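Render this sequence as a predicted structure.
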Amino acid sequence: MYKIEIRLASRKGFHTPAEAKKYYGRYSRQGFTVHWWNSPNLVRDSDHNNIVNYILGKASRGEGSVNYVLSNTKITLLVSPDNVAWASQRGNPTTISCEFSPHLNAEGYKKAGWLINELEGRYGRTLQLYKHSDWFQTQCPGTLDPRRMRAEANKWKSGGYNPKPVPKPVPKPVPQPVSLVDDWTLWKEGAVSYVCNKQPTHLWNFDSNTWNMNSVKQFNKGDRINIAGSAKNTKLGSTYYVTGYSFSKKTPTGFNPADLDIYVPPRPTPKPPVKPTVPPVPKPEPVPSTPTKDEEQDQRLKVLEEALKTLQEAYNKIIAWITSFNKEIK
């Protein structure tokens, strides 16, 4: 419940369990020794931090230490309760030590009891409470009352300070609304396709005792809806068309039959007939005529004449060249 401030003392100011056994010859955590800071007329409860700083200084010089410092406002840990602080002389190796404000009030004693109970839970035993004067001739812890601390620790242990759980209020049963929808009918012919004829067309929650129904969803004019059956509002005496989903869940959402028309699929537009393609009739190639014997003889004579003409032209060119050559020689 309470937060513990941690300000650890120097290693020079306490013993570990092993060191305590070697130094004192024994070690245990069977008790809790109560100290006070000083006489009430010399210190105030608000001196908590000053006391902590003073003890930390002593530990740094190897002069002493304490496990806890406790006031009405907070708790500070200086030496782990497993280690042996130097505050209680003969009680050091067997008890945990705590320096208390001499001005402890009801809250301070409550804190002391809480700390003792926490330590008893840690070590699994009831800790014997000692005064510092049980170990050493001193006036410490003065007016502090260990018996009151024990009573507070026992109260923590018994659950006296644990807040009792507040019983949860039993909720009153909420009366379930009586449905006004009945006469659910699934069409034997199966789902029928309808088309919305209004803009918008509403899907109504028709479980209502008035005509002022809530629109669950809106559809556009021309939207197709598959209707599987119908249901009736017994209060209003009106029938509504429902989808297969609404029918299977018995969800009272449906369409006003006046808002739907049976869907008529459009007739397909016939395609014009395709005229067959007539392949062109190939023209017959002309058959070459067979030449007669006279035609063959005329053809040969014509070829011969052309050959003679070519030879004559070549002869004339040779004669012309010779004549020209002779002239050049002379």
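Summary. Helices lie at 17-24, 48-60, 106-123, 146-157, 244-249, 293-329. The longest helix spans residues 293-329.
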